[in-house]
Amino acid sequence: MRNPLKKIKLSSPVIPGLLVFLIILSITTFVAYQRYLILKSSEEDGVSRQATRIDREIKNVLNQGFSSTQSLAFLVENYGVPQDFSNISQLLLKTNTSVDALELVDSSGVITHVYPIEENEVLGFNILMDSVGKPGAVRTIEKGEYYIAGPINLKQGGSGFVCRTPIYTNNEFSGFAAAVIKLSTLLSAISLDSLEQSQYSYQLSKVNPDGSEKIFFSSQKKLQENALNRSITDYNGEWKLYVISNKSFALGGVLALGILGVFLSILAGFYTNSILERPIKLKKMVEDKTLLLRESEQKFKSLIEQASDGIFLTDFNGNMIDANIRGVEMFGYSKSELLKQNIKNLATNEELENLPIRFQELNLGQSVLSERQLLRKDKSSFYGEVSAKKLNDGVILGIVRDISERKEERKKLENKNRELKKTNSELDSFVYSASHELRAPLTSLLGLVDIMKKEESESEKLVNLNMMENSITRLDDFIGEIIQYSQNKHLDVKIEKINFSTLIDRSLEDLWYLKNTSGINVVKEINNKEPFFSDKRRVTVLLNNFISNAIKYHDLEKRSPSIWINVIINSKEASIIIKDNGMGIDKESQTKIYNMFYRATAKVMGSGIGLFIVQEILEKLRGSVSLESELNMGSTFTIKLPNMAPKN
């Protein structure tokens, strides 16, 4: 016999209706709760994004303090305290516009230099004796690197940050390079001083050593309690910034959704459980997938926009489809302007001819990597490393990295390598030949001294003394040439007015000791319509070498050995023409005479280093020399030197 009570329970619509009611009520309650979580998560994401943006802007401003103090510390460490501190500081402040003042502090804590002095009358102030400034300075010394003190009350008035980089001389602490960034400058640079009606509030504090905080700025007089907030700090500083949401979290919509859920649950109780279960499950799946898709899209977009490289999408005709923030900044266009461009407009015609875009390889799915010279909107260029690949939908993804600095460093390294190879080669040749040139006169002197010990005749001793004098003169000339070579290598170019007539006369006077100097006719002609400026020391060495060679290599068989010196000066350059009717130089030797220790003939005493020094000096002065010569007919050297007259 069946149980009547069981029959009533199974057939009554109350039980399935109640079950449907409870299920729907649970679902709507869950949806309302999820709605609450989504709203809360969205608000938290908004605060986090705003905090990230403000953090980046603050650190961009404070990094100017790092850049300026690092540059100033480098100058002091390597070259001492600059005499033109104001000019250097002015240049640094033009580059780092958010820095209000630059200071130099000695090892005892006394401020020795300030720029600008106006509104910064702190010269002679000892920060290590000041209760406000001392903690930050001591912390910088302890860290041994860049540190930001503040916000603090500044000695010159107001409040702000003091960015310090310690200076070390011979590995010993010798003071600070400091940059002052006023709080008002920082707030203005990141626009916090004009955001009273913003959806976010801001509160800037200084974190004391005991963990307490002192408020220096608040964008709202009264902040909401329990409001969503995020804090920003910097390990190189002692400041903390709170980003606080001004939104009052709206529970009204969530509550209305809950009430609607109860109402729907009551209505759904009249329907069968089997009809209601399917749409509920479907709705739940759609919500979950939508939420996952939205989160994935936001994360991907955030990664693309914050990338340090330019990221671009183009079609196969090269037309721009999309670009990230860095890509827009890289080419100097606005985003709307950039999206109207074709990639061929972003490279020089010469670059495209030498390195065409490899569309065929891209179409085959291959990744293409190349280095190109790219054009900005203002027609300036930079070097970019371009990586491109075809995506599944036929769109080309391009990633551009600015490698201008890397290219420049590589070029500098190659130049230094070439210079080093040249220096090593010259050094090897110099050591080999110099040892011979120095030892030969000394060996000759020792031999002559030994002979003189045995000689009794005064006439023979006189002959030996003359030979000794020649050896000493040869040694002295060679040592003098070595000194000239060293001076040219290491002394800076010193510009002063040149009087060629005086220099030529002095050179002839200095070369009196050369044999047959008095028997050579020297004709001098100076055409100086414009004043000429250059390095007097180096020009003197040039004249001495060319004139002494003209004297040494004269032709004894000719009745009237002569030297003609003609100088023509204009505003652009000086042309110095030194002509002789001496031995001349054969064709084969004309290309070698500027090599170190090369001598065209053994008939004349010389080290072979003089014209090598001439070539080095001409490189230093950005000049040139040309030669016309015929054996037994004479030689004509034409030297051209740029006029380094100061510009008005």
Automatic annotation (TrEMBL):
Residues of the Histidine kinase domain: 433-645
Gene3D superfamilies: 1.10.287.130, CHASE domain, Histidine kinase-like ATPase, C-terminal domain, PAS domain
Chief site of localization: membrane
Source species of the chain: Maribacter cobaltidurans
CHASE domain: residues covered: 110-195
Highest taxon of the lineage: Bacteria
Coiled coil regions in record: 403-430
EC number(s) recorded for this UniProt protein: 2.7.13.3
Protein name: histidine kinase
Transmembrane helix is among the record's keywords: yes
